[in-house]
Protein backbone atom coordinates (compact mmCIF):
# COMPACT_ATOMS: atom_id res chain seq x y z
CA UNK A 1 0.00 0.00 0.00
CA UNK A 2 1.26 3.49 -0.83
CA UNK A 3 0.49 6.91 0.54
CA UNK A 4 -0.12 8.30 -2.93
CA UNK A 5 -3.42 9.95 -3.71
CA UNK A 6 -5.78 8.71 -6.39
CA UNK A 7 -4.72 9.46 -9.95
CA UNK A 8 -6.02 12.67 -11.45
CA UNK A 9 -5.29 11.75 -15.07
CA UNK A 10 -4.42 8.77 -17.25
CA UNK A 11 -0.77 7.72 -17.59
CA UNK A 12 -1.03 8.13 -21.37
CA UNK A 13 -1.34 11.89 -20.83
CA UNK A 14 1.89 12.14 -18.81
CA UNK A 15 4.02 13.27 -21.77
CA UNK A 16 2.19 14.68 -24.78
CA UNK A 17 4.21 17.43 -26.46
CA UNK A 18 6.13 16.07 -29.49
CA UNK A 19 9.42 17.72 -28.48
CA UNK A 20 9.19 16.22 -25.00
CA UNK A 21 8.29 12.79 -26.40
CA UNK A 22 11.37 13.04 -28.61
CA UNK A 23 13.53 14.08 -25.61
CA UNK A 24 12.28 11.11 -23.56
CA UNK A 25 12.96 8.64 -26.36
CA UNK A 26 16.46 10.12 -26.80
CA UNK A 27 17.11 9.78 -23.04
CA UNK A 28 17.30 13.54 -22.38
CA UNK A 29 14.04 13.58 -20.41
CA UNK A 30 13.60 11.46 -17.28
CA UNK A 31 11.15 13.55 -15.23
CA UNK A 32 7.71 15.07 -15.70
CA UNK A 33 6.12 17.51 -13.30
CA UNK A 34 2.34 17.63 -13.10
CA UNK A 35 -0.20 19.18 -10.74
CA UNK A 36 -1.75 15.75 -10.24
CA UNK A 37 -0.75 12.11 -10.15
CA UNK A 38 -0.67 10.50 -13.60
CA UNK A 39 1.24 7.31 -12.73
CA UNK A 40 2.56 5.29 -9.82
CA UNK A 41 6.03 3.76 -9.50
CA UNK A 42 6.24 0.48 -11.40
CA UNK A 43 3.67 1.45 -14.02
CA UNK A 44 4.67 1.53 -17.67
CA UNK A 45 3.72 3.72 -20.59
CA UNK A 46 4.63 3.90 -24.25
CA UNK A 47 5.83 6.74 -26.43
CA UNK A 48 5.98 5.95 -30.14
CA UNK A 49 6.37 2.24 -29.42
CA UNK A 50 9.08 2.68 -26.77
CA UNK A 51 8.21 1.49 -23.25
CA UNK A 52 9.09 3.49 -20.15
CA UNK A 53 8.73 2.61 -16.47
CA UNK A 54 7.86 5.08 -13.74
CA UNK A 55 10.62 4.66 -11.15
CA UNK A 56 9.55 7.19 -8.50
CA UNK A 57 6.87 9.70 -7.62
CA UNK A 58 7.47 12.56 -5.23
CA UNK A 59 5.83 15.78 -4.12
CA UNK A 60 8.03 18.86 -4.50
CA UNK A 61 7.65 22.60 -4.78
CA UNK A 62 8.53 24.52 -7.91
CA UNK A 63 11.05 26.44 -5.82
CA UNK A 64 12.95 23.19 -5.21
CA UNK A 65 13.76 22.90 -8.92
CA UNK A 66 17.37 23.18 -10.05
CA UNK A 67 18.99 23.43 -13.47
CA UNK A 68 19.63 19.67 -13.23
CA UNK A 69 15.89 19.08 -12.68
CA UNK A 70 15.03 21.29 -15.66
CA UNK A 71 17.49 19.31 -17.77
CA UNK A 72 15.86 16.06 -16.59
CA UNK A 73 12.59 17.64 -17.81
CA UNK A 74 14.18 18.02 -21.26
CA UNK A 75 15.07 21.73 -21.09
CA UNK A 76 18.54 23.33 -21.23
CA UNK A 77 18.09 25.33 -18.00
CA UNK A 78 15.65 26.23 -15.25
CA UNK A 79 15.13 29.64 -16.84
CA UNK A 80 14.19 28.04 -20.19
CA UNK A 81 11.78 25.69 -18.37
CA UNK A 82 10.12 28.59 -16.52
CA UNK A 83 9.81 30.67 -19.68
CA UNK A 84 8.13 27.89 -21.64
CA UNK A 85 5.79 26.84 -18.83
CA UNK A 86 4.60 30.42 -18.37
CA UNK A 87 4.04 30.79 -22.14
CA UNK A 88 2.11 27.50 -22.30
CA UNK A 89 -0.18 28.45 -19.40
CA UNK A 90 -1.43 31.96 -20.10
CA UNK A 91 -2.01 33.98 -16.95
CA UNK A 92 0.00 31.60 -14.76
CA UNK A 93 2.53 33.06 -12.37
CA UNK A 94 5.56 31.12 -11.13
CA UNK A 95 5.01 30.39 -7.46
CA UNK A 96 8.02 28.82 -5.73
CA UNK A 97 5.80 27.29 -3.04
CA UNK A 98 3.42 25.61 -5.53
CA UNK A 99 3.51 21.84 -4.99
CA UNK A 100 3.69 19.47 -7.96
CA UNK A 101 4.10 15.74 -8.44
CA UNK A 102 7.42 14.74 -9.98
CA UNK A 103 7.15 11.55 -12.04
CA UNK A 104 10.59 9.95 -12.56
CA UNK A 105 10.87 7.42 -15.36
CA UNK A 106 13.35 5.48 -17.45
CA UNK A 107 13.33 3.57 -20.68
CA UNK A 108 12.45 -0.07 -20.03
CA UNK A 109 14.88 -2.81 -20.97
UniProtKB/TrEMBL annotation:
Taxonomy, superkingdom: Bacteria
Protein name as annotated: ASCH domain-containing protein
InterPro entries: PUA-like_sf
CDD domains: ASCH_yqfb_like
UniProt-listed SUPFAM superfamilies: PUA domain-like
Lineage: Bacteria, Pseudomonadati, Pseudomonadota, Gammaproteobacteria, Methylococcales
Amino acid sequence: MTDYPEKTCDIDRLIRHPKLVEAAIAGRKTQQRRDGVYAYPGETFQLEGVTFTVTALERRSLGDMTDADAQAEGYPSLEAYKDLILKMHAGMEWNDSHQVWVHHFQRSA
